[in-house]
User: Fold GTP cyclohydrolase 1 type 2 homolog from Chitinophaga eiseniae.
Amino acid sequence: MKIKEIIQVLEAYAPLPYQESYDNAGLIFGDPSWEVTNALLTLDATEAVIDEAIARGCNLVVAHHPIVFGGLKKINGRSYVERVAIKAIKHDVAVYAAHTNLDNVRNGVCAQMADRLGLERCRVLQPKTGLLKKLYTYVPVADAEKVRAALFAAGAGNIGNYSECSFNMEGQGTFNGGAGTNPYVGTPGERHFEKEIKLEVIFPVYLESGILKALFTSHPYEEVAYEVVALDNTYQDVGSGLVGELPEAMEEQAFLAWVKQQFQTGCVRYTPLRGRPVKKVALCGGAGSFLLKRAIAAGADVYISADFKYHEFFDADNQIVIADVGHFESEQFTVELFYHILTEKFRNFAPLKSTIKTNPVNYL
Assistant:
């Protein structure tokens, strides 16, 4: 199996276009055409993790955090990033990162957190916009199902938990084939009237080339009439954070103690308690202070995330309880997610989970 096959699976689950503009997800080092000896799964691609990959016979490291964020003007080993780059390249170890694209999918990093707490009826806290388009096309009635099925197979027509969604309206189209044409119906040089279906489907922007290929391949006409329109709709399955509900309400102090246990953290930093039961919980893996207002607007009793600064805790303003569990702790279950994605697709492939604890923060 080649590295590119693993990348295809990871990016089908968490497409690269879903990453934030500042991010650097994707293949950081290595050649996608390399044969995979094995893959090592980790949160951070540190120098110790590269050493572990070499020792355990892995030529691919799949990490959550990209080891390279900004440009490297020199690679001479003076920083830990440069040392990782030198060692990985020297030993032909490829490094791939699925970061904010994995954060932003509905069943991504935040879902791993929610699962640990048993949250139900979860939804994306801050859905993204600008990720959807709509295709309009016109098909002879007899061929509409063939085209429709091809578009569905290419990934069009998914809305939330519903698939094969389309709108179909029957009407009459006209055309007149010019010199050298070979129309599917009608005679060149004569105006032809044809009963057609106006077919509409919605799709994610990153699938556009595949959607159009499916349209052109399945459509019977020599010249295919179609329109692609960008939508401002929010994409409910893609975005930052999640909010859901506990099966049963819990007392605040007991809930925080349970959170500490579930996330295996040495410390939970939290704002003053409000003396109210905890039922609705919002959360975000990693640095999530930017979603605090969203969590409050969603009516969450507690917001679980990481990397809150001192003054940001004041922003809770007795409207919510902030529970900062630590950056590593909030995202540590990503390794399990990587493992699930790859073993679900490749039943005869057994990636390895790193034994290196990469958390740079310690607690007394």
Observations:
- The chain has three domains: 3-99+333-353, 105-127+239-324, 131-231.
- The first strand starts at residue 26 and ends at 29.
- Residues 117 and 258 are 9 Å apart (CA to CA).
